[in-house]
Design brief:
alpha+beta; Elongation Factor Tu (Ef-tu), domain 3; six-stranded antiparallel β-barrel
Length: 325
């Protein structure tokens, strides 16, 4: 059957899916596992209970982003979905702070396959596919048994309104993936380019692009994952100072241009470098991008210039995120 791919700019898909081979899967055991994460990440994990999940940001001492983690509590253990595979930087950073704590970490990424079903009707698609009722999930993990074995379904933030990740052993997920391929006429598989385009349109960051140790969570638009009422955590003093004294110097914004631009291009204002592009996609005859720009220049609708190929200055428009449809 010939696959039908949606338009890269489509944000009104009923449902679509994509493999997530670059995500990591880390198992945490021990009585102090959540206490450790509470001391090392930005969100408040104290309400986390079995069958629940949330996202949080792992920071350096200088409040720079190591990764955005999805924490899933299973009662006897905790699983982390990392943005990177292998998740070595995350595991190494966590181990650095295990002293007398009862915490054991293991990279379990090779034991699972992950894919994402996204879009307004993704809950219906997942239910039809797996038999698992997911309509009531709100950012939580749910483990259930289906015909092909055990599968974990996780509702996640998405560039297409709603998203569910399916996580299982490769042999258990293979029949579901085959069913998705066979349903290409009404449940298309996204290409990586289409997925990135949807991500840029929605203003979602990604590891190695908007999420790196060059930036802090307030600059990266991750305020919703930062709890200012919780106790101390690594990087907390820097985050609190940036917030209290309004010292966030740059922020993620959207950019569009009618001629080519590229990731890493400098953003200029009055001939001075005031930012950098972090993700760029070509959409029809235009280019859309995410990038960091200094706060005093982050005005939606304003025109700035992009230095492309060290030669040409490309005029570009600044956009508030998400981009308008």
């Amino acid at each position: 059957m010939t696959k039908h791919h949606p338009s890269p700019m489509s944000s009104s898909l009923d449902a679509a899916w994509i493999d997530r081979p670059h995500a990591g899967w880390v198992r945490m055991e021990g009585a102090d596992r959540l206490d450790l994460l509470q001391r090392l990440t930005t969100n408040d994990l104290t309400p986390l209970r079995e069958g629940k999940g949330l996202q949080t940001v792992l920071l350096t001492e200088k409040a720079r982003i190591i990764d955005v983690l999805t924490v899933l509590e299973f009662g006897t253990h905790t699983m982390l979905i990392t943005s990177m595979q292998p998740p070595t930087p995350v595991i190494s950073w966590l181990k650095k702070y295990i002293i007398m704590d009862d915490v054991r970490l293991r990279d379990a990424s090779s034991a699972v396959h992950m894919l994402e079903v996204m879009g307004p009707r993704s809950s219906e698609a997942v239910h039809q596919l797996t038999g698992v009722g997911v309509a009531e999930l709100a950012g939580c993990a749910k483990t259930d048994w289906i015909q092909h074995g055990e599968i974990t379904v996780v509702r996640m933030p998405s560039s297409l309104e709603v998203s569910y990740w399916l996580i299982a052993a490769p042999e258990h997920l293979a029949p579901l993936r085959e069913a998705l391929i066979n349903a290409a006429d009404h449940l298309p598989q996204l290409t990586n380019e289409q997925d990135t385009t949807l991500r840029v349109r929605s203003g979602m960051g990604a590891i190695g692009h908007e999420w790196t140790e060059a930036y802090n969570p307030l600059e990266a638009g991750l305020l919703h994952l930062t709890n200012f009422a919780k106790g101390c955590y690594i990087g907390q003093e820097v985050v609190a100072r940036l917030d209290s004294y309004n010292k966030v110097k740059q922020r993620v914004m959207g950019f569009s241009a009618d001629t080519p631009i590229a990731e890493g291009d400098a953003i200029l204002a009055a001939d001075a470098i005031v930012g950098v592009l972090t993700t760029v996609v070509a959409v029809g005859g235009t280019w859309k991008a995410l990038g960091y720009i200094r706060g005093e220049h982050a005005t939606a609708g304003a025109t700035i210039h992009i230095q492309h190929d060290d030669r040409s200055l490309v005029p570009a428009t600044i956009h508030q995120l998400p981009f308008e449809a």
